[in-house]
Fold these 3 entries.
Entry 1:
Amino acid sequence: MRNLFQGRRRFGFTLVELLTVIVIIAVIASLTLPAIIGARRKANWTQCQSNLHQLSLAWMDYRYQNRDDTPDWLSSLYPEYCSSALVYVCPGDRLEGRIDGSKPQDLVDNGSEAFNSTDDNWGNNGIPACSYFYEMCNTNCEYVGGVRTWKEQKIIELQGKDRTRFPVIRCFHHWKDRRYEVRWPGAVTNRMEGMTINVAYDGNILFSCENWKATIVRVH
Ligand SMILES: [Zn+2]
């Protein structure tokens, strides 16, 4: 008697075949994903640097036109000194500048201060969004207890410092791209910090760890 199942054509995959395909796809994905993420990070980095370069030109121009006074807000540069509102948004900022506080939420969750009052959206002069942290904004400085504005505090801190190493406009959205092992004066142990891209007081682009006053022990 002919077996009913003999000669019957199979349709679809067996479980083993399906698992094999899944494993192959997973291996291919694991090989290509880091390269894709790396390429995207590099592109974001390049675009952010371009944004900061444009803001630095506007910042230096503002000071030149205003007897070396600094703008109260980053948005004060728009549109007279910086004609595009797009340069205020870092492509690495997943919330596209629509946050309270100029630090990415995952960094704030990591224990960093949000410094919400420094958010340029609060002192908005017409820009829809801002990803960057402005160190010299005209609002009460929380980390000195509000006795001075950030601008007044930074003018004090600037005295005797190398102005090419003094960050004024900062991007925290690349902090996972590179890590620094840093040491604070008097600290017993080193700790890890993320990297930032900055415009320094003298207008140059400056890479630094999150807490720029700390000493870098090693770059990871
Ligand atoms: Zn950025």
Note: The mean pLDDT is 87.
Entry 2:
Amino acid sequence: MTLQEGKQRDALLASYGFGLFPVLHYQPARRGEWTIANHLPAVGDGYLTRAVVEERVVLSRGRHVWMSIGLLEKESHAWHVHCANGTVVTAGLGLGMFAYAAAMKPEVERVIVAEIDPDIIELMQQSSGFHSWPWREKVEILQVDALAADFADAVKAQTRGRSVDYLYADIWPNFPAEEAPAQTGVMARALKPRAAGWWGQELSFAGFCRARQQRLDEAGFRAFFAENGVPVPEVTEGYLRFCRDLMAAYRLGSKDTLVQRLRNFLAG
Ligand SMILES: C[S@@+](CC[C@H](N)C(=O)[O-])C[C@H]1O[C@@H](n2cnc3c(N)ncnc32)[C@H](O)[C@@H]1O
């Protein structure tokens, strides 16, 4: 971890109670339509933090960027890495960033990755030196469509009946994907994990609060997840603060009338 990465991890941890996580190094590689490239330092935004100068590892399909390991991906995955424990299932391998970070946690026993595209599986393994990851033995990669009927059976064959402690869904190139809450609900109904989440959920949640004139608090979070059939993780005050700060940063704040704002203020 560089000095800059260490400061970013500590800043997130101090503000919200969960920090950044270790990331891999990648060799440039190409397979089918997909490429992994290391980009020179440039200015870009994080998920919450604005305007950082950083090198990025970029995964593209043709000319279309699917993800790049920079502060945006790290800040938007940090909560899910924090929630990972016991048996973890993640939908969408990408660069294996989440799978690696989750496997590095002592409280995670195994990470099962569901990935639809065999080329991505080959590419990530080749580029990241998968076979020599420190906790390689915790990680299993399945080639399966996480939205298909055989997803749960494929996972069950690996867990041998053990329940899933955390499901993290990230199968979309953009956030917040409109279909992400409902599709995570489909995966959660199939797998029945104890808790789940998806990439960009904070912005979907902020949009839900705005549309419903709902306060951004734990009750609102529970209502939003229940509506989509997604089991909630243990929500901390720090995480709700993270959601509120994102809501403000993306200007997704509620359309409260003056009277409603005053009521909210008086209710504390
Ligand atoms: C943005 S990447 C995931 C990044 C990953 N979270 C990481 O930490 O590196 C999205 C991945 O989802 C995969 N994908 C898309 N649709 C899928 C589906 N229905 N089932 C499983 N994987 C899918 C894509 O091929 C791609 O590898």
Note: Residues 3-16 form the longest helix (14 residues).
Entry 3:
Amino acid sequence: MEFCEVQDNQRMAGRLLQTDAAILARLATQHNTRCNTPWRKPHFPLTINRQTLKSRTARVIMVPVVARTVNPSLPGKRSRTMRQLVFIVAAFCVASWMADTASAQSSRGGSERRGFDYGGAPEFDSPPLAKSDAEKRALAALDAMTKDQWYLNVTTREGRVLRQLAEAVGAKRIVEIGTSSGYSTLWLAMAARATGGKVFTHEIDPEKVKIARANFERAGLDDVITIVEGDAHETIKRHKEPIDVVFLDAEKKGYVDYLEKLLPLVRPGGLVLGHDMHRPMPDPRYIEAITKNPDLDTSFIMMESFGISMTLKKR
Ligand SMILES: C[S@@+](CC[C@H](N)C(=O)[O-])C[C@H]1O[C@@H](n2cnc3c(N)ncnc32)[C@H](O)[C@@H]1O
């Protein structure tokens, strides 16, 4: 099992603690480029290079780990210390991951990184301004939703970008997968109102459909939105007309299927937008599908929050 790659060990070892330097120097001779662990199967391949060895953390933590891994005959006290260090690092990683995930999902509390505004706007960012009474009503409904429960909705900044993109391409037919309470749908519907278009939004959960419907009415945008209730893998087969913008925001494992079914209908110059490209983890098969197809051109935007893939179907 490949475990580590030791590059230029002799030089780097000189910068380490005496004992560890000796071990690494021996390593360098014995395992010129790669070494195997006789000890346990690692969870991931670990590369040790100049960068990682530079940091104090690497010197204090990585070196004993490597040393212990390649030399299990180290004295017992040393071994205990190493296990304690590994435990502390693992606990720290798990705690910070949990804190990060929780702050990304909570819509309440003092944290700057939360549902509707997670991602951090620059100081000079300011709320959207209504140009008409209709827009004022829609924006007020959107604002009210941010004070309500968070239903895994896009952030406010992402919502604005969805509207901007859809309106910029003059989208008349917008298909959304994953309505939830309808927050992203309303941003897309503002674009549709401006272009004289329609949003078709697919949702499997009847409770969410009810909540969304009420929000659409409150925003005064229900006339440009059609809710398609049911499993979108089936219901999207009903689409027959060309589509200008697709927005995927349902279960991540379904993105490839949604793409395969809808891409033939997306007009050249149209966009396929995929949510959660940063977190939760996107499906690698979807990333491959949108980045390795010469008919498409994809950028990843707003990756400081949940992240959106923006895929252009070339003309
Ligand atoms: C992340 S939420 C959508 C949030 C919404 N786009 C927003 O920003 O306001 C995902 C939604 O997809 C729905 N969903 C999951 N699988 C689905 C499927 N197969 N068909 C239709 N909807 C689905 C879930 O019920 C959930 O409401």
Note: The longest strand covers residues 266-275.
